[in-house]
Amino acid sequence: MKKYWFHIALLICIILPIVILVCLDYYNLEGYNYRFNRDTNSFEPWTQTFFDRNFTFDLTWKGRMFYPIFAWLLVIESTLGWRQIVDKKPRNRALMGLSLACAIIPTIYVLATNFFGLDLTILKMGFISGTPSVTASNEPSDFLHLSWPLSLEYLVFFASFLCAVLLAYKPKSLKIFSISLALLGAMGFAYMLDTIYPFGVFRPLQEMALPTAATAAALFDILGYNVTLSYPMHTADSLLPALVVSTGDKATGVAIAWACAGVFSLLLYVLIIFIFFRRTNISGFRKLLYFIIGLFGTFFANVLRIYAIILINLQSGHDAGIDFHNTYGELFGFGWIFGFILLIVCIERFTLVERVKSGFQTISTHLRRRKKNPLPIIEAKTGAQVQ
After folding, report:
1. Residue 239: strand pairing partners
2. CA–CA dist 305, 260 (Å, integer)
3. Which of 250, 248, 230 is nearest to 239 (CA)?
4. Of 102, 106, 100, which is closest to residue 157 (Cα–Cα)?
5. Angle, CA of 293, 296 and 299, to the nearest 5°
6. Backbone phi, then psi, for 126, in 5-degree steps?
């Protein structure tokens, strides 16, 4: 146990703030009990906070469901690379202390935002940065009062854990925790980007939403729905593709921003698959083939995501569609990415390609032999010849 105490302590420090957040969120003990009032141009106490209305660990988009997934991946990576991280344990006690101090920063951050007044400072920072603070009817905007705190929280967690791992195991060992850290950092970056540039205003990513929307429209058309694709639809400063789908007496319409179109899933796929390939000895040709197949798979997973959201919106109403979008929508692309990586691992681990090739070669050889050496002709009693 003396040999492993540092690694176990580091893992506990990383996972601890997630456990604390689950408890605070479940029992509605979180802070951010302030709202910005446009009439008074100041923040005032607020009881009906977005954090109290939602259990954010149920949400994938602008929620905390990815924290437990991060912790699960971290434990798996630690288990798989246990010998390496034990061998790379820092010999300097000062480095150990700095690493653990960095890992404990998120816990201090969580306690400070919920019990010691840091939440109001964070909300003021978001307001100064230009994050939308109120709606047209002067109601609190979820961009400032929910999305901004969550986005900043993800980035604080990522930066702290990254520094802790670098101090503990040096840069070369980053590949051991590369997938879990990449997931956490990518989610924080995507949340913050959509918070600062809401409604698809960030044009480089928004342009990628149109092909996904067009393919979803084609899918609805093939399945017999009446569908109209409009582009561009102006919402504030954004240019969004919009779909209107109807069947019988039911109709629904949605405007699709880059986050809703799953563009983030494509970027996450590229990041994770490159990290995965660096940790394998797969041939270059197979890597290219796997990459292309996975890219198309991620794209069509996003198409199915839009299809499912619109279909639920059409059949069960707008609120049900929003709930599905926020809770299960991101799992389409995320589930495909990790399912595809697991498929690659199985193919390479059990040499499935080689086995299939060998099977085809055996069948081909057998058929050639049959062709060269046909079965003998047997005389039947009637005098006819049968093969």
Report:
1. 234
2. 9
3. 230
4. 106
5. 150
6. -65, -40
> Can you name the residues that pair with 34 across neighbouring β-strands?
45
Q: CB under 8 Å to 242, separation ≥6 — which residues?
A: 213, 229, 230, 231, 233, 253, 254, 255, 256
d(CA 2, CA 210): 56
pLDDT of residue 236: 62
244 - beta bridge partners?
Answer: 228, 253
Local structure of 179: helix, strand or coil: helix
Indicate whether this model's pTM tops 0.85: yes
Give the closest residue to 149 by CA, choosing from 119, 178, 171, 176: 119
What number of CA atoms fall less than 13 Å from residue 296's CA on the CB side? Answer: 5
- 294, 274 Cβ separation under 8 angstroms: no
Separation between Cα atoms, residue 163 and residue 173, nearest integer Å? 12
CA dihedral 303, 309, 315, 316 (to 10 degrees): 170
Contact predicate 312/329, CB 8 Å:
no
Residue 36 identity = F
- CA–CA separation, 109 vs 106, rounded Å? 5
| Amino acid at site 267 | L
pLDDT (tens digit per residue) in 247-266 = 888 999 998 988 888 888 99
Mean pLDDT of 123-130: 94
Question: Residue 107 to residues 286, 361, 363: CA-CA distances in angstroms?
Answer: 43, 59, 62
Q: Write down the pLDDT at residue 216.
A: 95
CB-CB contact of 172 with 66 (8 Å): no
Nearest to 61 by CA among 152, 250, 194, 174: 194
Residue 290 tokens read as: 């796997």
CA distance 31 to 211: 41
- The mean pLDDT value of the chain amounts to 89
Does residue 184 contact residue 78 with C-beta atoms inside 8 Å? Answer: no
| Omega before residue 232 within 30° of 0, cis | yes
Furthest C-alpha separation in the chain: 110
